[in-house]
């Protein structure tokens, strides 16, 4: 294949990967943040201490994190079909991407929030701050560098997951690498997709590190 043949394929696959990772990142950030905060709040000594709730949430997160993505991808096919009406294509791939990444990010959120100085929380409570105010203005604000750094790691994991989604026709760079680079032995396509993935990961890491550093100095 010539470059004129490869370029349009790479451009389309890159757009598909960006779409999958972008939407999955937004959904993962929202879901992971919510679950991570609840894990902290419902733990013993938390603002909403409820051990049974904490135990159930912890179990769900642990199960989600223990499944290899390729197995999860196949295991939730009925759920994916119920949500988007199909199991093939970029939109369908967003479902397992999100389901697989939310538990991963939730644990990072939990860890980041637990690192917030307890004296700061105690001071906020002494000043009469409500629970929502403590969560929003103390816990999340103080944990911002860790949350951003964790989200950066999660996005990079999503890039890897999206490439694996190509195995089941999920589209994107992974699908392109399999259909052309592997099945048709087009080595140029394989090399190009690998380079694009490396560049994407590198840019994501650089941006995440920059934002985390800026937040840590505020």
Automatic annotation (TrEMBL):
Record-annotated ABC transmembrane type-1 domain positions: 14-208
Keyword Zinc: no
InterPro entries: AA_ABC_Transporter_Permease, MetI-like, MetI-like_sf
GO CC aspect terms: plasma membrane
GO terms of biological process kind: D-methionine transmembrane transport
Membrane-traversing stretches: 18-41, 53-77, 83-106, 146-169, 189-212
Alphabetical keyword list: Cell membrane, Membrane, Transmembrane, Transmembrane helix, Transport
Localization: Cell membrane
Membrane topology: Multi-pass membrane protein
Family: Belongs to the binding-protein-dependent transport system permease family. CysTW subfamily.
Protein name per Swiss-Prot or TrEMBL: Methionine ABC transporter permease
Organism for this UniProt entry: Phytohabitans suffuscus
Gene encoding the protein: metI
């Amino acid at each position: 294949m010539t470059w004129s043949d490869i370029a349009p394929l790479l451009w389309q696959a890159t757009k598909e990967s960006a779409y999958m990772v972008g939407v999955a990142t937004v959904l993962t950030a929202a879901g992971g943040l919510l679950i991570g905060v609840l894990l902290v709040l419902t733990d013993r000594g938390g603002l909403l201490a409820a051990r049974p709730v904490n135990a159930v949430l912890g179990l769900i997160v642990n199960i989600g994190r223990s499944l290899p993505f390729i197995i999860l991808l196949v295991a939730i096919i009925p759920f994916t079909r119920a949500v988007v009406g199909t199991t093939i294509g970029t939109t369908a791939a967003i479902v397992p991407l999100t389901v697989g990444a939310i538990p991963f990010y939730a644990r990072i959120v939990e860890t980041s929030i637990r690192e917030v100085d307890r004296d700061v929380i105690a001071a906020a409570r002494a000043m009469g701050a409500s629970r929502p105010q403590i969560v929003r203005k103390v816990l999340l604000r103080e944990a911002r560098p860790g949350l951003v750094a964790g989200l950066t790691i999660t996005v990079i994991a999503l890039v890897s997951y999206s490439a694996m989604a190509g195995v089941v026709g999920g589209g994107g760079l992974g699908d392109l690498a399999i259909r052309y680079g592997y099945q048709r032995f087009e080595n140029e396509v394989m090399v190009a997709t690998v380079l694009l993935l490396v560049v994407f990961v590198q840019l994501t890491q650089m941006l995440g590190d920059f934002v985390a550093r800026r937040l840590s100095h505020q």
